[in-house]
Amino acid sequence: MVIINHKLHLALVAMLFGATQSLIAAEPNQTFATATLLPAGQLTVSDSLFAGTLSGGSGNFPDTLLGSLDLFGQIEFTNDDDSPYGDGRASALVNIPTNSGTIDFKVTGFGDDDFIGLHDEFGAYEYEIEVYDGSGGLIDTLTGARTLSAGAVDRITLSDAEWIGGGYNVFLDNAPGATLQGGDIDFFRFVGLTPGATFTAETFDPSATDIDTILGRFSSTGALVDFNDDYDADLNFLSRLTGTVPASGQLYFAVAGLGDDNFTGTHGEQGDYELTITLQSTSPMGDFNGDTFVNAADYTTWRDGLGTTYTAADYNAWRNNFGPSAVVAVSAVPEPAAIALVMAIFTLGAAVRKRNGQRSPRSSGESVALGRGSYLTAPWIALQSRSIS
Asked: Which one of 249, 279, 309 terminates a domain?
């Protein structure tokens, strides 16, 4: 008997170990230490979340439908599955006005869109109400518990004069007393990024499954730095974070599901998603050719576009950010005032020549007279080594 139990024990251990190994093999990035290391410069990754399992509670988790009532007792707003509590089938409503100082809503089962009791859902649920004043300040939090019966519709009405002109949110928990365990978290490590660049990290829903993500950014030691649930109140599902790439050129992120603010896997979200990082340009002022360096090449670009793309003010941006490794000294480049003077002389000379039937000397490299005893040629603009004052 002892031998049989021992063998059975070993078999169970082997089965559990095998199941664990399969889970790890399928999702190796469940922890910060095992974050997926992406190839240098890769900015997009696709993955999927799987939901945790509920344990405890009554075991009967009703799929609820929630509807707020207007001043005439008519259904005004409804919601099916947007609550952060429960198994993902609980309902929530936000920003419902309390113009009369009254909170009034109904709870029924899924499919009963007319709120007349045509459903088979049953089980215990709890509600949490947040009441705000006209300025958006939280003034009350109310909770309660009910049990929904098949074919029944529950109505909850509360009033307070202090609520007049404000609004409320209501969230249902269709699995009170139950705990959600074993949900998925995906950690990623992006490397080879440009230090100092500003970034935007955001999730996308490629399969249009309405997956509701939470995005977290972590430090190089695994500490949670920042997180975001819904960056767009209209979309209400996708997440976005912004910041600056550190000197290491590395960023660490984790993706979890709605309600898992601590990134422990306690969520009911399931589906595919994409995580994408967008880097903004880090080109300094004066980098006119876009190579991230401010050097003599940018001066040439500025010179060629002066009067069309660029102005004399752009010259100051180039001079102030001129790279220390450049061969040409800043003092060797003519000041904007001097260049403007030369351009004016060129323009005047061209006008005079045109009036006298002469051709422009800039096309042939001829000298232009600036005054008695003073001559300069077109190549001067690029090669002159002293400023004109």
From this structure: 279
Same domain, 203 and 230: yes
CB 36 within 8 A of CB 45: yes
**Residues 176, 87: Cα–Cα separation, whole Å:** 10
Residue with tokens 């007319």: 114
Residues 318, 302 contacting (CB under 8 angstroms): yes
68/159 same-domain check? yes
Strand order in the sheet with 75-79: 75-79, 64-69, 102-109, 154-159
Q: Are 104 and 69 in contact (CB under 8 A)?
A: yes
Helix (H), strand (E) at residue 227: strand 224-228
Q: What is the mean pLDDT of residues 113-138?
A: 96
How would you class 103 by CB atoms within 10 Å of its CB: exposed for 0-12, middle for 13-18, buried for 19 or more? buried
Do 93 and 127 sit in the same domain of this protein? yes
The whole-angstrom separation of Cα 30 and Cα 364 is 71
Q: Is residue 389, in this structure, part of any structural domain at all?
A: no
Residue 3: predicted pLDDT: 30
Which bin fits 237, alpha (ψ -120 to 50), beta or left (φ > 0)? alpha
- Would residue 356 count as lying in a domain? yes
**Residue where a domain terminates, one of 144, 161, 179:** 179
pTM over 0.90: no
The count of domains in the chain is: 3
Tell whether 38 and 187 lie within a shared domain: yes
CATH number of the domain enclosing 188: 2.60.120.380
Residue 299 burial (CB < 10 Å; 0-12/13-18/19+)? Answer: buried
Range of the domain at 244: 27-52+182-279
The token pair at 338 is 């001097």
**Position 27 pLDDT exceeds 70:** no
Q: List the single range of 2-16, 137-151, 170-184 with lowest mean pLDDT.
A: 2-16
Task: Return all residues near 86 (Cβ < 8 A) that are at least 6 apart.
Answer: 61, 125, 172, 173, 174, 175, 268
